[in-house]
Specification:
The structure is a single chain. By secondary structure, the chain is mostly beta strands. It has a single domain (2-139), classed as Beta Complex (Metal Binding Protein, Guanine Nucleotide Exchange Factor, Chain A). Helix content is 10%, strand content 33%. The chain has 2 helices and 11 strands; from the N terminus they run E-E-E-H-E-E-E-E-E-E-E-E-H. The protein has helices at 28-34, 132-139, and strands spanning 2-5, 12-15, 22-25, 39-45, 49-53, 58-62, 68-72, 81-82, 88-92, 104-108, 124-125. The strands form 3 sheets. The protein has a 6-stranded mixed sheet with strand order 8-9-4-3-10-11.
């Protein structure tokens, strides 16, 4: 079990089982949400995710295009949110408290990355978002079925 929480600690969750690898999204929306060069996240199957406390502090922002960002209304940290197809959760990797045996497996939307951003990892890179099956095959844990 791996625990995670927002900056103020009022929102907590835990992940069970084998974790998928991380992907980093370099699109302009993720850069703005993270305040950095990319948004580092993982997709976790629904039965591996559990809220511990603080769901009442979650606020959401949604653009006209459908991009959704859930965040802590107290400290502003991005927090996990349910995927559109409700098969799992998008989880910001930076919220995890404990070190894990995961690595960055893919960089997406590198075609719109900031000019000052450099990709230091030797992993798959995509100019845009690859199809869901391609991404899942890259980030899924090697030991078990995933989505």
């Amino acid at each position: 079990m791996i625990k995670g929480n927002c900056l103020c600690g009022d929102i907590e969750f835990k992940l069970n089982g084998d974790l998928p690898h991380i992907y980093q999204c370099h699109c302009s929306l993720c850069r703005k949400v993270s305040g950095s060069s990319s948004n580092s996240a993982m997709l976790v199957k629904i039965d591996a995710f559990q809220w511990v406390c603080g769901e009442q502090y979650i606020s959401s922002f949604k653009t006209e295009s459908g991009f959704k960002s859930d965040f802590c209304s107290r400290c502003g940290s991005p927090v996990p949110n349910l995927l559109k197809n409700a098969t799992g959760y998008w989880v910001p990797a930076g919220l995890l408290d404990e070190p894990t045996n995961v690595s960055v497996a893919a960089h997406v939307y590198v075609g719109s990355k900031a000019r000052w951003d450099t990709l230091g990892e030797n992993c798959e890179s995509f100019a845009e978002m690859p199809d869901q099956e391609t991404l899942e095959n890259l980030i899924r844990p090697r030991s078990k079925d995933w989505f």
